[in-house]
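Input/output pair, single chain:
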Amino acid sequence: MSDVSNASLNDTPSSERVHIGIFGRRNAGKSSLLNAVTGQPLAVVSPVKGTTTDPVRKSMELLPIGPVLLIDTPGFDDDGELGSKRVEKTLGVLRQTDAALLVVDATEGKSDSDRELIGLFMEHNVRFLVALNKCDLLASRAAPLADEIYVSAATGENIGALKERIASLVESEEGKLRIVGDLIFPADLVVLVTPIDKAAPKGRLILPQQQTIRDILEADAAAVVVKEFELRETLENLKKPPRLVITDSQVFAKAAADVPPEIPLTSFSILMARYKGLLDASVRGVRALDDVKDGDKILISEGCTHHRQCDDIGTVKLPRWIRSYTGASPEFEFTSGGGFPENLAGAGYKLIVHCGGCMLNDREMRYRQRAAQRQGVPITNFGVLIAYTQGILKRSLSVFPHLQAELED
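Output:
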């Protein structure tokens, strides 16, 4: 197997990469194996136990999988107060893992912590492979089991075969939803309403906008990109109406006023919720907003971390819209990045409002949705909630008739 690396491939967002977690005890050789697989000295290697204190991530191209994210985790047998925190971080990585590599010191065999990890892989339905590392130190070798392979990070033995075996763990992308490509046809015109987001890096569009434009082009359709104040005039100047208008949720009300009712309208956030598998739950969950009272706790969760602006959507605008709609003064809590509470019901949340999840991979988003459903806490999405509070959710779901019907139940 050969690895491919070029600028276009390495620009793939981490959320779109296959996440491969590397797990095991301290000093089993996880970091050495990561270095051997990538061919680069990425992780610090030392005979001292517990050298890896935080997950180490490396993006690369691993054929035939394509773009992957390799994640080296702290030792799962770590002890003490700091050790328990490292183990907690390791479990957090497991929530994102599409395929797992369990590294075992072949000179010692599987430990109780290794068997515990295998149990967790099975519990979380994560495909895994056991790498029996340091095989060069063995005087003799027993026949490996079907889910095992002898390797040596020190000598490079079987590293190529290891990559092949890892690739076999990864599920096919065939049948995966697209952001918008399955809703349009070749030669269609799609208008994108993209305010210049102050939180985006200078000179760049935010990730959902970039991904949507790419998906439109891959569908052999055309994209017209405008700011919110140019929308009405742009529509008037078009020779034929667009198949769809997609807007940033923050200007939903203005876009709804400017787009004729016969033209379908939705938002980037709603499309991302569908892409990540959260849209149906979001439409059901948003109704919990109607029962919000003073003092109720609402969790607003974002998958990315960014510098907060004075009118930040997550911490400022959403709470303002919720207070205005409900007439109540709920209590708001906020998480960002990889942070997401385990005990949602125990925290007493009335509702979870989640971003589109463009920076989180599918498995992490499914975990968060299942955690909310399992604990009986309604969950919705930024775009769905904004459209609901502004009375335009039904219209925003015009390209999803089954969800429009659900609003009428």
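The mean pLDDT is 88. DSSP finds 16 helices and 14 strands in the chain.
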